[in-house]
Fold these 3 entries.
Entry 1:
Amino acid sequence: MARAVIDGVALEYDDFGAGEPLVFVHGAFIADAFRPLLAEPALASKFRLITYHRRGYGGSSRTSESMTFAIAASDCCALLSLLGVRRAHVVGHSHGANVALQLALDAPQLVQTLTLLEAGLIVGASAPLYRETLLQSGRRYAAAGARVAVDEFFQLRWPSYREDLPRVLPGALERAVADAGTFFEAELPGALDWKFEAEEAQRIRQPVLVVLGEQSVNLHPRFAETYRLLLEWLPDAEGFVLPAPTHFLQIENPQALAVALSNFCARHPTGET
């Protein structure tokens, strides 16, 4: 990966392909979670694909300070400016989708469309249970260590990950364990304090594709509720239920997701190439 240094912060990134810019913001733990999706012909043959390791992940700068979604969005904005991107399609997964939403709020001129892959919002009737789940993960990290906490975190969101993740992304689990402190120590406090509800959603005027993994509804009530609320709140949103996967849907079913994403972006072109 290339390396950009912006205001003293180093971010690893890849920038390849030709066409309208399509930017990917990963969630917690698996910094390379978009790799299977990026290899799909429906995207690789049509777009300029930009993916990066957020601060604290992979070879990007480590962080000891609290990492709010606003800081993470600012990093993304600065990287795109450095790369000469004036307007882009933005895709975010889980907590990366929260970063993408914050980017749309803070720099709306930069965002042509948003695609939200199971955003990690603490909203609705499921909010107390989801908040407690996150807090429990943090307690397990403090008491039992990174490997146990990451394993339990993944089990709740992708029950077959022990078999599937090493096959699809070799080495990703070890990298996730190494990066666990970024989420539990730096990101989680800010995530628990972040507010995104109907009022904030009404400010996002771009077209938004809200994606739900078909099997996620069996894992936690917050997945279906967040999907429903985003479709209700966002002024210009459409929903898509991706067949088969759970929460790590871009790893579990990249082919179908790539086709849906490509079609969505084609309907809302940036005019930038």
Note: The first strand starts at residue 2 and ends at 6.
Entry 2:
Amino acid sequence: MESFKYKLPTKIIFGRGEFIKLGTEAKQLGKKAFIVTGKKFAKESGLLDKAHEMLDKSGLIYIDFTKIEPNPKSETIDIGAAIACKQKVDFIIGLGGGSVIDAAKAIALVTTTCKPIWDYCERPTKEKIPHKVLPILSVVTVAATGSEADGNSVITNSKTRDKRGIYGEALFPTISIVDPLITLSVPQQQTIDGVVDMFVHILESYLSSKACAPVSDRISEALMKEALMQGEKVFMKLNDIEAREALSWISTLALSGIPNAGRKGPFPMHRMEHPLSGMYGISHGRGLASIMPSYLYHTKEMHYDRLKLLGKNLFSTDSPAKTIERLVHWLKKVDAFVSLKKLGVKREDIDRLIEMAVRDEGEKDSISAREKLNREQLKKIYETAYNYGDLYRKA
């Protein structure tokens, strides 16, 4: 195992109906809150009204910012932070999915430093994330990104459409409320996209690290197996609260640092997906679903030993090819097997996608994986993902 430092500064409040504790928990962070939400869900579902009611009972003042779009834009972050600064808020509440929680983190950062958010997203960065930002309270509405238990935030440049992730210990939420009952109203496709996202979060470091960490491997395999099983259950029955409860916890654990403790590894599939959702506005989970089969096919030899291990413990096969086949079969069962062409990606944009992925990495000609992937290899992955009929003919 590699040496590691583990610290989870976030207080996690998990369980059915725990949203009711919002006011009590928020009161610990300050007197004036800046509530960050998306444009529709929080308002239309009644969650925002319920949040107001609980904050009122706790004697708190609040300002709403209901402007966050999927794949939150840098301009939106800077506008929100300017309002938060002017209002002199004490802390930030993120009420929504991964995009909203990421935006809440970014607004907490910019409100503290008064620097444009993209200064932190440049490669190399223009600004360093400070050791302390405004406190963040997250309320998660969909099991997907795990942003409620990590220090990551992913932002899209409003002009160039580059999508970049940033990380800092100060960006961990101080408090996160994970109430699976809230996720019951999430539609089928968005639910499954979230399952794909949490699965790939665990899979990437499992495949890409070369460290020997059997304990982390067993934890990762158990979480991935459960994600596939519970995802299939909720696909068949959207109101299966036990399945949604399990997925909510898997999502929270996925990037908490527990599954990959002792074996750090890069996230190449995420690196390749970011240009898709940045340029086209594709759901992040759906973009990952489109990339994953092609990525695994073209890197099968690189990950041969890891795919054998994964297949043995998830699917009772030691064949890497059959392991990939089983994952594709699962994607088909939950209606998530999709090509880039079907998602509306233009084939002539593939070179631009490669350029954006490499630029995100901060390199000139490659991105990091178990071994470096150069531009030619990236092109093969994107081109196969563009039309999976080609992959069937090759396989």
Note: The mean pLDDT is 95.
Entry 3:
Amino acid sequence: MSNGLYPFIHKRKSFEHEKELRALIWTIEHGKNTWGINNKFKNVDGLNVPVDVSVLIERVFVAPTAPGWVHELVTSIVDRFGLSVPVVRSHLAESPFY
């Protein structure tokens, strides 16, 4: 893999069911750093891109083996940030439909 962006724009096949959207913004300023010299970015502050997460998130899944307090914690975080999306326990541990 010769492209350094590959891990950010590609996803493992086993997660394709998530239908995740990834966005990457790369500007000329990102090329003006010393990444190749000392392996860290220099003078790159990042880019704030406002998004409406309520449009991007349909629901939040909690692992089927997670304890009840995890579901409660995730629900409280969703509420704290004003998202109107359901927090549901994943059904992946149940018997599959064939």
Note: The radius of gyration is 19 Å.
